[in-house]
Amino acid sequence: MRQLVIVGGSDAGICAALRAKEIAPDVEVTMALADRYPNFSICGLPFFISGEVADWRNLAHRSLDEIEAQGIRVLLEHRVLAIDARQKRVKHAGLDGITHDLAYDRLLIATGAVSTKPPIAGLDLPGVFMLRWMEDGLSMHAFMEEHDVQSAVVIGGGYIGLEMADALKRRGARVTVVEFAGTLLTTLDDSLGAQLKAELERHGVEVMTGRAVKAVEPCDGGLVVRGDRGLSVTADMVLVAAGCRPAVELAKQAGVAIGGSGAIKVDRAMRTNLPDVFAAGDCVETWHNLLGRDVYLPLGTTAHKQGRVAGENMAGGEAVYAGSLGTQAVKVFDLVAARTGLRDREAVDAGYTPLTVGCETWDHKVYYPGARPMQVLITADVPTRRLLGAQILGHRSAEVSKRVDIIAAALFHRMTVEQVSDIDLSYTPPLSSPWDPVQQAAQAWLKNID
């Protein structure tokens, strides 16, 4: 009977375990995770902090009992200390510190990522948090309850930073967002980032862009965040949301090859350079369909898909990872921003000749009550008219996510802009128009080159 061992129990790890048992029910699967939260939605933590999700237990996709009912052995609070790829064994230890050896026929490394710790003094002070794992969220929530947090500084204006600014404001805190770049959410064009900044400010969040934080210091029972250009903000709590980096130390020690991005290098079957050792999730590189090369793109959706491919192949299958497009969405108060594919600068670097055209329209027929403006930016290659990407901003009721998914599907199938205009999409006045906003944006792009 084959022994499959999985290091990590989040998105990639659990998807691999479940898929392996589907393909080969007789395999033995052991999953070791460093914490006690298997298969929890880390992406849901901001909504637990905000109070929109009342009980943190509801963030579990599956309970431990449900996982074990699938025949998966789960080792909670067991840290894998070393991998011996030659002997096909892993050394692990529980909270008691006693080490054990576990033999495997095939191994999956799904160690995820860790929060980036920028060079800022004082990040180890009480009241300073990062948000990457369940324990981070629970510790932050407990601190806020115990200390009656009334003010907070969020360092970083990316996806997590914006979601947490929303969450903390919903809890009634005074919130300041400090971002090093000149705009928020730098994965979008500056014009859309400026509108997200305005949305935050409309809800009472102070936003400071183009500021470098130098230190967090204790001050009168609270904290003060100091930086350049006279930055000095006091708060009860500080959240550092400066991105993440792949957790690859265990893999490196075992001799697993690391790619140019600093993440584990895998092929599209999720195999590493070591025999019978696979890797998936936020610790690995991912194949980008438009760039035609491996990149580091840590996303929950990517981790789920990579884990499923790895699990199938560990069980004897021949699955291939279809690739990534960087499709993302974020809700900030009443706005939703989404993107997929490439922006102009990225397209130029990839050798395309791009043109980006914006279109502002209504999310549904304007005569039906509640119509909201929606902005759609289409990027495509001028010589071939091949679609390359899109960015969309609209009201949270405007089905922005649906629209960006249309573009993602079109990108996946290498469609031209004309073909996007031709897709047979649904229509009813409360939800769309005969020409969907995505198609109106495609037609606007075509007008600019015809």
Description:
The protein has 450 residues and is α/β, with parallel strands linked by helices. The protein folds into 3 domains: 3-114 and 245-314, FAD/NAD(P)-binding domain; 128-242, 3-Layer(bba) Sandwich (FAD/NAD(P)-binding domain), CATH 3.50.50.60; 334-447, Enolase-like, domain 1 (2-Layer Sandwich), CATH 3.30.390. Helices cover 27% and strands 28% of the residues. The chain has helices at 11-23, 45-50, 64-68, 134-147, 159-170, 190-202, 249-254, 300-314, 344-349, 400-412, 417-422, 437-447; strands spanning 3-7, 28-32, 72-75, 79-84, 89-93, 99-103, 106-109, 113-115, 128-130, 151-155, 174-179, 206-209, 213-219, 222-227, 232-235, 237-240, 244-246, 277-279, 286-288, 293-295, 328-332, 335-341, 354-362, 373-381, 387-395. The strands form 7 sheets. The protein has a 5-stranded parallel β-sheet with strand order 3-2-1-7-18. Strands 9-16-10-11-12 form a 5-stranded parallel β-sheet, with helices on one face. Strands 21-22-25-24-23 form a 5-stranded antiparallel β-sheet. β14 (222-227) and β15 form a beta hairpin. It is globular. The termini are far apart.
